[in-house]
């Protein structure tokens, strides 16, 4: 495993994972100098990258069953490796970045089968595994006097509250645990966020964004934030610079074969003013997003042409065409199985936006202020399924969002 060369804090670093080939590259932006590389590491694309303090990043190696703490700015890239239950579904930490939780999900299976949850204390290296409920639970870890692990379950829907200390002290053998408190949710929850400043947790459902606030060792439900549209969001992200929630509202026929007809709106809810804004993105496949210094970036895939959509100050919209991908989703097929996709990354303290070109091993480095491509990086792996990316600066505040992305 090669050592990473120390990098100035002012230089943005891009982590690029090809979870199929089993590699992780760390590159400087915008020039693309490779500062470190890992091989034989198949990171969970679904659990994603979790920003930790001081420019560090947490992720899960699904093949080896390890949580990795990476320090792209340090002398050694892998700072810590701790065994966890896999396949990893969701990853989150408390606001301090010390206490982590990893849930398990479907993996390559067609039905929920694993009920294992792993909790980790990075300060001591302690970890414990317990059994909760089989499914695909989302997770947040609330801070305060005694941190709480909040699992977002589906069918039946609920926010299940566990004391972190109780889980960490569980005996060996993966014992079943009972929630300390429960808050009902609709059955179709998908998407989680936390606002650390006020101890709020958010969960996306068909009805809107359900929010709850910590009260002691339990949660108290607050008013649901409506989507304001017949469509719904399947993904939530906290904007740490503007104190807002972001999502993409997908509408149209649910049939995945009709994905080119899906409608998409950027949805932003300002947590300070309570104002909600929706912006049309266009038809096709739009899912995850990335937050830069002054812009929010979305990629839109469509048979008639792909593009990067940048939402800027004063709600301006800039569209930049992206070159087609061989193996891209096509009409008459689904946008999920056996096709190439794109990943998008940004840092809240940088104007660079990064977009992958799945199957081609390419990463577009785009200046969000102009919408122009500054350079195109070519890696030694194809970036199957679009791979996964995270752009970090050492002190960019990205760790203010304590949910893996």
From TrEMBL:
Gene3D superfamilies: YVTN repeat-like/Quinoprotein amine dehydrogenase. InterPro entries: Haem_d1_sf, WD40/YVTN_repeat-like_dom_sf. This is Uncharacterized protein. It comes from Streptomyces poonensis.
């Amino acid at each position: 495993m090669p050592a990473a060369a120390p990098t100035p804090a002012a230089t943005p670093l891009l982590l690029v994972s090809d979870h199929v080939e089993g590699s992780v590259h760390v590159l400087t932006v915008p020039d693309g100098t490779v500062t470190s590389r890992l091989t034989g590491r198949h990171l969970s694309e679904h659990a994603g990258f979790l920003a930790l303090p001081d420019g560090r990043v947490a992720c899960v190696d699904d093949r080896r069953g390890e949580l990795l703490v990476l320090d792209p700015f340090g002398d050694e890239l892998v700072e810590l490796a701790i065994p966890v239950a896999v396949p990893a579904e969701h990853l989150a930490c408390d606001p301090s970045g010390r206490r982590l939780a990893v849930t398990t999900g479907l993996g390559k299976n067609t039905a929920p089968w694993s009920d294992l949850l792993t909790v980790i204390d990075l300060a001591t290296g302690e970890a414990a595994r317990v059994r909760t409920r089989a499914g695909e639970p989302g997770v947040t870890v609330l801070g305060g006097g005694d941190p709480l692990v909040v699992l977002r379950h589906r069918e039946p829907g609920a926010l299940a509250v566990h004391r972190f200390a109780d889980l960490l002290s569980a005996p060996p053998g993966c014992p079943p645990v009972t929630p300390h408190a429960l808050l009902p949710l609709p059955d179709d929850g998908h998407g989680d966020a936390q606002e650390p400043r006020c101890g709020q947790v958010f969960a996306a459902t068909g009805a809107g964004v359900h929010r709850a606030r910590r009260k002691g060792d339990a949660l108290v439900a607050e008013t649901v934030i409506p989507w304001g549209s017949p469509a719904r969001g399947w993904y939530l992200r906290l904007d740490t610079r503007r104190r807002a929630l972001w999502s993409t509202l997908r509408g149209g026929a649910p049939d995945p074969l009709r994905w080119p007809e899906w409608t998409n709106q950027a949805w932003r809810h300002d947590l300070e003013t309570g104002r909600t804004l929706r912006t049309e993105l266009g038809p096709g496949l739009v899912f995850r997003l990335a937050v830069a210094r002054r812009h929010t970036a979305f990629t839109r895939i469509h048979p008639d042409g792909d593009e990067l959509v940048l939402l800027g100050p004063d709600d301006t919209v800039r569209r930049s065409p992206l070159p087609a991908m061989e193996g891209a989703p096509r009409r008459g097929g689904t946008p999920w199985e056996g096709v190439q996709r794109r990943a998008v990354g940004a840092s809240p303290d940088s104007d660079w936006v990064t977009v992958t070109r799945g199957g081609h091993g390419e990463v577009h480095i785009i200046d969000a202020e102009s919408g122009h491509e500054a350079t195109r990086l070519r890696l030694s792996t194809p970036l199957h399924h679009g791979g996964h990316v995270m752009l970090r600066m050492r002190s960019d505040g990205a760790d203010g969002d304590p949910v893996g992305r």
